Amino acid sequence: AGVVSSEKSSPNTKPPLLKRDSGSIKKFGYSGPPPLPDKKPTDTFQARLKCRHCHEWYLESANRAGACEFAPDCFKSCIDCVTCIKCAQCMLYHCMSDAEGEFAMHPCA
């Protein structure tokens, strides 16, 4: 079948070699192509967004929520509403403004 030697094996002789067996101790086997070098992770493309309040360009990943100073502050608006700051500002505008129409924007300041 796959035997090179036609002699019968005896107790003092080595077993017969097969065609694919070279008889050497070191075996060379094909293990496939060598591994490819590790690639550095490429930065994914990030689109720049435009702020709807100040119209400046920014990256979403590099910007935290509420970073725009011109954006409305929902907590401040809620506090102003609950504490009637808007009513006090209205009184200041109509009663305490000077000839040029200027007054303190925040009545508690």
State the main characteristics.
6% strand; 2 strands; two-stranded antiparallel ribbon; rod-shaped; mainly alpha; 109 residues; 2 helices
Task: Explain what the structure shows.
Residues 1-12 have a biased composition (Polar residues). Residues 1-41 are annotated as: Disordered. InterPro entries: Sprouty. With 109 residues, the chain is mainly alpha-helical. The chain has a domain at 72-109. It has helices at 74-82, 85-95, and strands at 48-50, 57-59.
According to DSSP, the number of beta strands is: 2
Tell me about the largest β-sheet. Answer: 2 strands, antiparallel
Helix content class: 10-25%
Cα-to-Cα separation, first versus last residue? 103 Å
Mean pLDDT comes to 74
Order of helices and strands: EEHH
The low-pLDDT segments are: none
What general form does the structure show?
rod-shaped
* Global Rg: 42 Å
Quickly count the helices.
2
Strand proportion, as a percent range, falls in 5-15%
Strands side by side in the biggest sheet: 1-2
Q: From the helix content, strand content and strand pairing, which structural class follows?
A: mainly alpha
